Amino acid sequence: QKFIGFIKLHLNRYLNDKELKAAMDLETEIDNQRIILRKKSQYRLQDGENVKGELLYIDIVRHMEHIGDYAMNIAEALRHLR
Known about the structure:
The chain has helices spanning 2-10, 17-46, 51-79. The chain has 82 residues and is an all-alpha fold. The chain is elongated and about 55 Å long. The longest helix is centred in the middle third of the chain and has 30 residues, at 17-46. Helix 1 (2-10) packs parallel to helix 3 and helix 2 (17-46) packs antiparallel against helix 3. The chain contains three helices and no strands. Helices cover 83% and strands 0% of the residues.
């Protein structure tokens, strides 16, 4: 949600180096959270949790990570606005 807010705030204007770095940091944070959430899901599966529910959860996490990727693509495109 922070990354989407960042993009909304900076939409339609050039991103300077500092702002692009902030966008990259947010995207890295999303990637790290995805890894953590997947590991937690794997542990729950090992403990016998509902497989169907965990697969759905993993799919949702994957989609959230894709949203972060798309937001990063937008940030990179804003970098080229002048």
